[in-house]
Write a sequence for this structure.
């Protein structure tokens, strides 16, 4: 009986197999090195403490011009849906959510008042906030119509 001849496959030949094997190890090593390098940057970020909710919500105080809207608007519906009451401590702001409480300080005399945002405005670009008549009286600028203020979110 004649023994069957051995057939060599291309993948089993010595030069090709050795080449592919060494190339696979090199590419695996480079890939692993790249993955570890990218993950090492993430590891340092995870050690930092996350910001507190107060840091996320409360931006630094802003300084700008405040005006007030007087008793002529009494009873008109504000953007929040409630009627304007000149005797309440309320304010109109362009972007802050309704219900946001603000500490407004008159920079001319240092007087402070806490107001609640319930309307949108002011309509004049150079103004930062519109205050109710009562808030303007507490800040003592009602007779002037305008004043420079600092606004802090509480």
């Amino acid at each position: 009986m004649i023994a069957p001849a051995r057939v060599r496959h291309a993948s089993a030949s010595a030069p090709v197999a050795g080449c592919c094997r060494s190339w696979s190890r090199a590419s695996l090593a480079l890939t692993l090195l790249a993955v570890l390098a990218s993950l090492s940057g993430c590891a340092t970020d995870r050690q930092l403490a996350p910001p507190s909710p107060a840091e996320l919500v409360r931006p630094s105080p802003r300084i700008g011009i405040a005006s007030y809207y007087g008793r002529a608007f009494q009873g008109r519906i504000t953007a929040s849906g409630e009627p304007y009451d000149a005797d309440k401590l309320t304010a109109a702001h362009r972007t802050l959510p309704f219900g946001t409480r603000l500490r407004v300080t008159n920079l001319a005399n240092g007087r402070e008042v806490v107001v609640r945002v319930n309307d949108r405005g002011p309509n004049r670009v150079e103004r930062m906030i519109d205050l109710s008549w009562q808030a303007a009286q507490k800040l003592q600028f009602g007779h002037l119509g305008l004043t420079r203020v600092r606004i802090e979110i509480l």
Remarks:
- The chain has a mean pLDDT of 78.
- The chain is about 30% helix and 25% strand.
- Residues 54-153 form a domain with the Barwin-like endoglucanases fold (CATH 2.40.40.10).
